[in-house]
Fold this protein.
Amino acid sequence: MNMKCSRVFKKALPLALLSATFAVVACDFGSESKDSSEEQPVAPENTVEEGSDQPTKTDPVDDDPVAERGSSSSVQSANGSSSSVQSSTPSTTEETGHCFESWLGGNGIARISTGYDAGFNNSGYWYSYSDNEDGGKSSIKWAAEPDEYGGLEPVLEKCGTGLCGTYKLDKGTLDYDPYVAVAFDLAGKDADGRTIPVDASGMGGIAITLSMTHAAILELSMGDEEDAKVDYALPAYDLGKASTGKSAYIPWSKFTQPSWGKVKISTEEAVKKLASVRIKIQAKSGSNGEFNIMKIEAYGRGSHSFCSDYVPPVSSSSIVPKSSSSVVPPSSSSVVPKSSNSLATCDLVTWNGADGFGRIDTGCDAGFDNSGYWYTYNDSLDGGMSIITWAAEPEPDGSLEPVLEKCGTGICGTYKLDKGVLDYDPYVAVGFDLAGKGADGRVIPVDASSMTGIAITFSVTHAAVLELSLGDEMDKKIGYALPAYDMGKSATGKTVDIPWSKFAQPSWAKAAQSISMDEAVKSIASIRVKVQAKSGSTGEFNIMQVGEHGHIGCCGPGY
């Protein structure tokens, strides 16, 4: 057998910026019970739990957990037509009987059902604001043009998984660092355009899934009058940053005023007159980046909250995320791609985790230089809450080299399966793309028939399958009944060497969704190691080697 050893391969860092579609895999909310027990997702201080990368601490904004102050006078009006505002007096809102319903960006609705609308029917709409009225020149550019009424549904449709766009920070004449923000009002605005404060203490806090290039804070506004009383030293929580997506679960008790604030207010008092919730990015002038807000809900949603009566809407998609393009950003569109027809030969080089590289040399890159990077995905787009926690914090740009260094022999971590509102068993997966993604963010299928199959060395607590994605269009065409191979489980590690002929579609696949393996291998986009089991299951995994069928073992540990 002509064994392959690793040819010279230039190490390239994963791209920090998101694709033109800004679709990033969502990391999920964990256990629904988010009280002060040992299972509380929010660790002391600002530890944040997430899916595709999990920091042990968040990054400060300009060395202060809450960035320098800026007047809230620059808040724009919400995305609701003024002609639809009712003339009635707003009702007094209390926590009893209200519920902040889970919002999923993948559902394409640009309004959150906050449960606190004051009667003007303009609560919960997403909007942006910046430092412009104070002399700054910062701006947000949505991924698509809003509709004629300012509605953001076209943006959500473009992004696919959330509300996304780009930002540019310019301090202009400001004497503090510039900022931009995306926000919504809990009760809406009155006839004079002023935000209406409400008692939101019953929510317990906020849970959010998002991605952003720079560190962001979650800021609580109490309305113009109250914000001015505390000199705009608003309670906030440092979310840190994550180019590939993270989730944070934040009880009200974790929100604090910035250190420069002189006029104090307790968070308990602040949330009893909460007007708006803002995701705010503040950094040095000249900074620019991208963001995607994928999910938001009340922290208290679950058995310890009145919100337990609510069930978030379930995505109508199948049992896998709507688009596999939501996991790794493509490189610059200025690179001229190869056509998929020119990629008839995949010369995959055996990957050994012990070598410390977070990328596989697939030999199939389509020209965008983004193939072979390891990434995670899960069941979040369909309402699941499963998560993967890496053994170490990835680098700021998402690179997994620190994980490989920590694990020593492979890419490893832990997982927790939580079905949320799913009607099937929850799952998590780790995968890579053979050819990468194009300028539009879509994964590129390639003819992998020159390979005879795939070999892998791994360990996992629960049984895992090796799944073949054929690209967004073909996956949807076959009803997401993707060809897969049952690898079983092994706590101590094992190697499986699988020819393409051993892969098969799941038994539930309908006749109209059938595809032969000869046809499937001519259109492989991604290879995924997937763990699916009963809700509440937890375990560990380690992927140590990946190579072509018949080539595993070359250049491995101790070679």
About this structure: The first helix runs from residue 153 to 159. The longest strand covers residues 205-221. Helices lie at 153-159, 224-229, 267-270, 401-407, 472-477, 517-520. The chain has a mean pLDDT of 76.
